[in-house]
């Protein structure tokens, strides 16, 4: 008796992976790693490698200077 690997209900092509937002690609890669699917892991790595990095909070501009912090609105509340 031979143990067969379950078939995938979704065919994850590189184009389909590229259409996902970056957090979803990272999650797909994590799931593929957990399920021991190196083909999907490689496709996710290729898509993530093509995407720009950074740009989040605290990121620096191209000239190396930090971005200015966003001004927060003062909270007014409580008893007067």
SSE blueprint:
Layout: H1 14-18, H2 22-34, H3 38-50
Helix pairs in contact: 2-3
Plain-language structure description:
This protein is mainly alpha-helical and 80 residues long. It has a domain at 14-50. It is 39% helix and 0% strand. The chain is built from 3 helices and no strands. The protein has helices at 14-18, 22-34, 38-50. The model has no long low-confidence stretch (mean pLDDT 82).
Question: What's the quick description here?
Answer:
With 80 residues, the protein is an all-alpha fold. 39% of the residues lie in helices and 0% in strands.
Please describe the biggest sheet, giving its number of strands, its sense, and whether it closes into a barrel: none
Which structural class do you get from the secondary structure elements? mainly alpha
Q: Which whole number gives the mean pLDDT?
A: 82
Roughly how many Å apart are the termini? 79 Å
Q: Bin the helical content.
A: 25-40%
Beta-strand segment tally? 0
Q: What order do the helices and strands follow?
A: HHH
- Total helical segments: 3
Provide the β-strand percentage band. under 5%
Global morphology: elongated
Low-confidence runs of at least 5 consecutive residues: none
Kindly list the characteristics that best describe this protein.
mainly alpha, 80 residues, elongated
């Amino acid at each position: 008796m031979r143990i067969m690997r379950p078939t995938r209900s979704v065919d994850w092509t590189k184009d389909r992976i590229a259409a996902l937002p970056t957090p979803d690609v990272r999650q797909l890669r994590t799931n593929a790693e957990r399920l021991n699917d190196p083909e999907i892991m490689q496709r996710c790595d290729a898509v993530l490698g093509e995407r720009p990095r950074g740009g989040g909070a605290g990121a620096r501009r191209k000239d190396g200077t930090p971005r200015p912090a966003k001004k927060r609105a003062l909270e007014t509340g409580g008893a007067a």
